[in-house]
Amino acid sequence: MFNLILVATGGALGAVLRYLLSNISKTLFVSSIYGTISVNIIGSFLIGYFITSDFGNNLSENFIKFFLIIGLLGSFTTFSAFSYEVLDLINSKKYASSFSYIFISIFICIISAYLGTLLNKF
Question: Is pTM, for the whole model, over 0.85?
Fold first, then answer.
């Protein structure tokens, strides 16, 4: 039951942070795509970092797994917004933009997660 509370509170915080970053991005750029890319890259990096971190010595493993990774970062990153935005680009016949967005989102997020894991090796 406690793990459920950790996921729920982390998820609420992650959703609020995503909302705030997306709104900031919308004021800086015309498209919401940049906000989604930003949260997914940042979230992927942090997930990679926390998965391999030594925070277990200071924080409980359940807190890291359920609150930070599944709750906060799971809610902060967003595949549903990514999917919607790709379909919106395709429906607008912006094929090059949609494929660029797919490529950047998938590969840069995976690279970001890997870089997060590398950070803990130093």
Answer: no
